[in-house]
Amino acid sequence: MDFSDELELAYLAGFFDGEGCIVISEYTNPVTSKRPGYQSMRLRIFVGNTNLDVLQLFVSRFGGSINCKRVYGNRKQLWTWSAATREAASALSLMLPYLTVKSEQAEIAAEFQSTMGQWFGLTDDMIGNRRALREAILILNNSGRTHYKPRSPKVGGRSEGL
Q1: Which of 47, 59, 110, 148 could form a disulfide with 20 if both were Cys (CB 3.0 to 4.6 A apart)?
Q2: Taking the domains of the chain in order of start, what are their residue ranges?
Q3: pTM, to two decimals
Q4: Please, how many CA atoms are within 13 Å of residue 130, restricted to the half-sphere of its CB?
Q5: How confident is the model at residue 36 (pLDDT cuts 50, 70, 90)?
Q6: How far apart (Å, rounded) are the C-alpha atoms in residues 43 and 92?
Q7: 3.40.605.10, 3.30.70.3190, 3.90.79.10, 3.10.28.10: CATH of 3-29+37-148
Q8: Average of pLDDT values for 10-32?
Q9: Residues of the chain with pLDDT > 90: what percent?
Q10: Per-residue pLDDT for 20 more than 80?
């Protein structure tokens, strides 16, 4: 990775720390679907902003898609970038070294996504583990705490106290 790649990842991670969201959703298929009642979970990440150019950087770096949100009144247009499942886990993995506020959620999301290779024959323990990881993300997202720990500036390759 060259310097510009690293700088771009650090920028996107900082943007994600401030404007992004990590979600593990759980849903049940409707009765009208091919597999009614089937329960599923998936990892999703989002960034919402009024600056479309920044969100296009997320798409070019990580994939995913951008959606336009309905605007009411004289508000600015809001756009949302999102990625799901493996694409989301890959984006979080690349941003993780630069995340501060959402680093714990990103680590939990990676652990969750690593459990998603098996679709059939899930044990109650496997399902319980996935739900526990989902709950951990919900708690962190709703805690109002940032879990931000300032890093000491590095001088000569060593961390120095502030």
Answers
A1: 47
A2: 3-29+37-148
A3: 0.79
A4: 20
A5: low
A6: 11
A7: 3.10.28.10
A8: 90
A9: 63
A10: yes
Residues comprising the chain, all counted: 162
Query: Are the C-beta atoms of 12 and 5 separated by less than 8 Å?
Result: no
Largest pairwise CA distance in the chain: 63
Write b or e for each residue in 35-54: b if 16 or more Cβ atoms lie within 10 A of its Cβ, otherwise e.
eeeeeebebbbbbebeeeeb
Tell which wins on pLDDT, 151 or 109.
109
* 151 pLDDT more than 70: no
- Residue 101, Cα to own-chain centre: how many angstroms? 12
Alpha helices (runs of H) in the chain, residue ranges in sequence order: 3-19, 52-62, 85-95, 103-114, 124-142
